[in-house]
């Protein structure tokens, strides 16, 4: 039987370099739910710029303080809700 491999020491400083970098959080990023106005703005920007999230993020955050990840997640959730609603209505 081959010898067991030694597990890396997770307590050493050398092991910390291989750890995934944690996403930084901005103190200016908002945590509360998206408002109706924000949903409408996000939809308008997506229609205008497609999936160019860098542009959407720049335009959206000039006054609203949302992260790009939050915008992408909200857009995905909005599309899932729309799809479910349309399926329920038989469209």
From TrEMBL:
<dbReference type="InterPro" id="IPR009057">
    <property type="entry name" value="Homeodomain-like_sf"/>
</dbReference>
<protein>
    <recommendedName>
        <fullName>Myb-like domain-containing protein</fullName>
    </recommendedName>
</protein>
<dbReference type="InterPro" id="IPR001005">
    <property type="entry name" value="SANT/Myb"/>
</dbReference>
<feature type="region of interest" description="Disordered">
    <location>
        <begin position="1"/>
        <end position="37"/>
    </location>
</feature>
<feature type="domain" description="HTH myb-type">
    <location>
        <begin position="26"/>
        <end position="83"/>
    </location>
</feature>
<dbReference type="Pfam" id="PF00249">
    <property type="entry name" value="Myb_DNA-binding"/>
</dbReference>
<dbReference type="InterPro" id="IPR017930">
    <property type="entry name" value="Myb_dom"/>
</dbReference>
<feature type="domain" description="Myb-like">
    <location>
        <begin position="26"/>
        <end position="79"/>
    </location>
</feature>
């Amino acid at each position: 039987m081959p010898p067991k491999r030694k597990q890396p020491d997770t307590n050493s400083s050398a092991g910390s370099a291989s750890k995934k970098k944690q996403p930084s959080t901005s103190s200016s990023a908002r945590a509360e739910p998206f408002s109706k106005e924000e949903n409408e703005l996000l939809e308008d920007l997506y229609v205008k710029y497609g999936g160019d999230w860098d542009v959407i993020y720049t335009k959206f955050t000039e006054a609203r303080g949302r992260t790009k990840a939050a915008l992408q997640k909200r857009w995905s959730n909005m599309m899932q809700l729309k799809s479910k609603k349309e399926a329920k209505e038989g469209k």
